[in-house]
Structure formats: C-alpha cells, structure tokens
Predict the 3D structure of the following.
Amino acid sequence: MTPIEIEIYKSYAQNIARPLSCETPVEISVAKIAKRYDAIFFDAFGTLYAYQNKVYPGALSMFRFFREQKKQIRLITNAATKAKEELLQEVNSMGFDFSLEEIFSSGEVFKDLNHEWNYKSAVFIGNESGKSYLRAAGITDFSDRENAVVITSLPGEDSLRETILKILSRPNAHLIVLNPDAYAPRIGSERVPVTGTYAYKLHLETGCRISYGGKPFPKLFQNALASLPAGSRTLMIGDTLGTDILGAQAAGIDSCLIPGRNMETAVLTRDEELLGLRPNYYLNP
Ligand SMILES: [Mg+2]
C-alpha cells in the first residue's frame, strides 16, 4: 500500500474503534468454506471481476459451486456510482446470476445516514443513475443549498474540482463518501487511486466534515446480515484488507482474503503489519 492508503485505512480503523484481530491466517479451500459457512458475502470489484468487466479465473466456478451448495450469497459492494438495477445487469452479463435482493450497495447506506442529517439537497459526484440512492434518501434537489457533497466516483471533469473545493471550504460543509475504497485494482497493471483517496485529500485541503458509507463501515454489513436467516454462519470473501477484511471484523464476521488480487502477495504481509489486521483465511482454491 502507498503511505496515503495506509493513512486512510488507519483512519477508517480508528473511526470504527473496535479491537482488530491479527492472528495468523490459515489457507482454506472453496469446499471447506462450503462445509463451515451458510452465507457467503462477496466483494465485487477486485474479487469477482476487475476493470473492463474482466472476470477473474476461477471466480465463476467458485460462485456456481456455492450456488449448487445452496448457500446464501450476497454481493457487498462499494460500487455506489451505479443504480442497483444497472449493477445487477452488469454483473449478470459476466455470467453470475445474482438477484436484486442479493446485492447490497454502499449507495443504499446513504438513506440510513441521512435519517440523522435530513439533507434535502446535495451536490452529487458520480454517474447519473447513482442519484437514485440520493432520491431514495429524500434528496429533492442537487444544488449546493445545504453545503452537502455526496461522492461515489471520481469527477469526470477537472473543472468540477474547483466548484467542489469552493463548497467544501464553507464553514459547515459536509463531504459524504459512498465509496471509501482508496485504490482500485487493474488486471496486469498498476493499481490506481480512487474515491476514498480523492475525498480524503479534499477533506485535508478544506478541513470539511467527512462521513463514510460502505465497507469497511458497519451499516452495509448490518443491512446484509439482517437479510440472512437467523444464526447463519457468514464469511466475507474479498481482495482488500482496509475495506473487506476490516469491515468483516468490524461487523463481527469471519473473512477470507484472495491473495494476489489487489496487491502483490509479498507486499501483503507488510500491509497486514502496518494496519494491524489479518483475515481468518487466505483462499486456496
Ligand atoms: Mg475489491
């Protein structure tokens, strides 16, 4: 991880304020997971597929195996930039067969968060269809009237940055981040900084209040857990320590990291030490 990525994920861990587990992980097979767990939470991007919808080798067969085994399956994603219906279509076009009810998007968490804030207006940075999450939370206009800015993906135009900076420099400005991911993986190339990093830098630059919805923060996990039959033994499978694994620990469920997806395996041990957390398992398919 880069120094800023460590700083960001450490700030998330502090925010969550729960003791983290750093026990040595053990390797686990897909078959063993099926024996030990009733419900599987999948991360999407970087775990099942990556940039340009490239499905990782083995991801589809693992998914189908859990389906055959009649496991409860959920997609727990920070990809809030798209409406859930659009996301569903996209993942299923890659060969998965999720239902809408099995998808839990960080976008939906805004509704829970906004119960407390009760914003009626917010500037939105993200794909047009992502506005559906804000409308569902009672946002009726997308102006800067209330100095709230909701971000789900990087702004397409540089000119927008000036506008955002101006709003966030106001005394009671509030930046709400619905995709806390600091970096995104690319197959066969460098990882790139994304929304979490962009928002954190805006927060440092302006001193604005910053709030997060999505992994690793608990609400998204709580919503997904509430959809399961009582007593389900649940495992989160993901590629990112600071979101999937930290989030699973914060939610009190076990976690399994797929090594080599988001970062070189050799770097992983150092990152685990820096963040002070480890998954329960490494996947060995
Ligand atoms: Mg991921």
